[in-house]
Amino acid sequence: MPEKFTNVAKDNAHVNAQIGKAFGGVTIGTAHSRRKDLGGHLAELRSAIKSGTLTPSIHAEVEAELAKVDTWLIDQDKERFTGMLMALKKAKGLLGDVAPLSSIATLALAAAEGLRS
């Protein structure tokens, strides 16, 4: 006889997933870690860019913008913080048509915005 499972959500509970039995790992959400620092996201983005889905000109433009972010990571000049954010936003915009790359760029941008002091 099959087992019966009952899930009851009360009092404004929010249920993301109802699972009767799970064998193995269960992941809900994105595969990307939100705990990475900005440098980690940039490394992941550069690695993903090597997949070859970008035209050479877009690839060069994205790398130029990421170089500006690298410069900020080295000196962390508070006066240039806005410029670093703008470079990440431009890179994200350039990658907008390639969802996997755009999502990593979004995570990098969120990590950068978290550095605002």
Q: State the total count of DSSP E strands.
A: 0
Count the DSSP helices: 4
Please give the radius of gyration in angstroms: 20 Å
Summarize model confidence as the mean pLDDT. 83
Q: Approximately how much beta-strand content do the residues carry?
A: under 5%
Distance between the termini: 60 Å
Categorize the overall geometry.
elongated
The structure class reads mainly alpha
What is the helix content? 40-55%
Main sheet specs: none
Query: Could you give the order of the helices and strands?
Result: HHHH
Unreliable spans: none
Account of the protein in words:
α1 packs antiparallel against α2, α2 runs antiparallel to α3 and α3 packs antiparallel against α4. The protein is an all-alpha fold. It has 4 helices and no strands.
Q: What is the fold's blueprint, element by element?
A:
Blueprint: H1 38-49, H2 56-75, H3 81-94, H4 99-113
Helix pairs in contact: 1-2, 1-4, 2-3, 3-4
Short key terms for the protein model shown above:
117 residues; mainly alpha; 4 helices; 0% strand; elongated
Outline of the structure:
This protein is mainly α.
